[in-house]
């Protein structure tokens, strides 16, 4: 039985807009390395730019380039590195990473392909419901497989493949935490 939203007829993510430091380098990475297609380019009145890339499946990834944008601050506005390698916490209100769906049967092939193109990729993480949140050995209860890597600006990207349908009773047993539960880091 398919679920439907009774409040709003949402069609998924139209586009996710990020900020880059070098539009040319960004376009070269996303088209040349990841194979996305550039579908729209815009010069903004303030001298900035806004470009859109087709990620497949009707999803777009967009980038702004602002002439006076401040630099990213790893560990605050972007992850310092990838899960499986090191610290990836970012500040409240930031975008932590972009997960891109890939077919499970090509998952390991795509990881090897990125490595061959010179992209530093993190180890494969087989996410499961164990206390660690990941399996030390692959098994049939792994619900998603993923690995992470970063674009030229340090934006954290993930190739991920779902292994089963979610929203099962075992998927919904965690109570959401509140702001009162936070331990705010000193900046």
Question: What do you see in this structure?
Answer:
Residues 12-162 form the VOC domain. This is VOC family protein. It comes from Actinomadura yumaensis. With 187 residues, this protein is α/β, with parallel strands linked by helices. It folds into two domains: 1-70, 2,3-Dihydroxybiphenyl 1,2-Dioxygenase, domain 1 (Roll), CATH 3.10.180.10; 72-165, Signal recognition particle alu RNA binding heterodimer, srp9/1. 11% of the residues lie in helices and 26% in strands. The chain has two helices and eight strands; from the N terminus they run βαββββαβββ. The strands form two sheets. It has a four-stranded mixed β-sheet with strand order 1-4-3-2, covered by helices on one side. It is globular and about 50 Å long. The termini are far apart. The mean pLDDT is 92.
Question: What's the topology here?
Answer:
Blueprint: E1 15-19, H1 23-33, E2 37-43, E3 49-56, E4 59-65, E5 98-101, H2 107-116, E6 125-127, E7 144-150, E8 156-162
Parallel strand pairs: 1-4, 5-8
Antiparallel strand pairs: 2-3, 3-4, 6-7, 7-8
- Helices, by number, come to 2
Oligomer: single chain
CATH topology of the largest domain: Signal recognition particle alu RNA binding heterodimer, srp9/1
Described by strand count, sense and barrel closure, the largest sheet is: 4 strands, mixed
- Determine and state the CATH class of the largest domain: Alpha Beta
Mean pLDDT across all residues, rounded?
A: 92
Give me the CATH architecture of the largest domain, please: 2-Layer Sandwich
Structural class: alpha/beta
Strand order of the largest sheet: 1-4-3-2
Overall number of structural domains: 2
State the separation between the terminal residues, measured CA to CA.
Answer: 47 Å
Order of helices and strands: EHEEEEHEEE
Categorize the overall geometry. Answer: globular
Low-confidence stretches: none
Strand content: 25-35%
Radius of gyration: 18 Å
Domain VOC: 12-162
Pfam families: Glyoxalase
InterPro entries: Glyas_Bleomycin-R_OHBP_Dase (IPR029068), Glyas_Fos-R_dOase_dom (IPR004360), GlyoxalaseI/FosfomycinResist (IPR050383), VOC_core (IPR037523)
Protein name: VOC family protein
